[in-house]
Input
Amino acid sequence: MDTQQISAPSRASSGVVHDNSRHTSRFTVVGNHLTQHHELSLTAIGLAAHIQSLPTGARIGIKDLAARFPESEGRIAAALRELEAHGYLRRTRTRLANGRIATRTVSCNQPSDQWRTDALPGRDCPQRTVRPPTPVRPCIEPEANKAHPARSRPRPDAPPAPRRGSTPLLVPQPAFPAEPLLRTATDLLAGLHHQDPRLLLSTQDVDALAPGVAAWLEREVGPSAVEHALTSELPAEGLRRPAGLLAHRLTARLPPLPPFRPPADLPPRPLPLQNCDDCDRAFRAAEPGECPDCRT
Output
């Protein structure tokens, strides 16, 4: 009697089976150290793969990514912090010529230990355990914002929002906020700490006070006069909030508008060019005809 051979079921039937096709265009090479990372969340792994597939110069701000994917801004911000902690992102902040702070982001397909924010000097980074990211509470929008989705996000030209727990800085607004005028106002405010070290302002305070300084400048007040009005007779003690004091001075000491000056008489316009009917030479005259040489 023959013995029936029973073959054991293949392990591949209970796990994933790959049906791979070779890519010849529009593909990104991603290492298994990222896709099979044991400490990154699934959101961070997917976000890193998406960022590595983008071209150089693409915008990867939190609001840009939140508009592209269904995850909330809080979850995307937490995923970016994870990638930065493990060396897959490098974010450095630099001050521009106009005084603003810009963030430069570098995506690394092979992270380096020296850029890991969870690494300490003198320790082996891969053997350390990274604390899990702080869970982000879901953002529940008010009923008013649900009815009007456009109100849930600030406008690009809106003034900077005040810090929590602080009074917003109210300053005069210029009639024509031209870019050179605001740039001069920003440079003036950023250099006030040279007159008094207590007047070292943050970037947010400079952005909030710049329109007030621009309102002075368009009233034909020179930068040196504005600087003197803001830095003279400062209190010897108790200067806890210099931005508030500067906002008060910009508002309380605002000079009046300059007197109206009628525009100066414009010089007479030159006569149009005409071609001589005889020699075809150009000359200026009110009507076509002959040039002075041909007439004589």
Observations:
- Residues 118-131, 136-152 have pLDDT under 50 and may be disordered.
- DSSP finds ten helices and four strands in the chain.
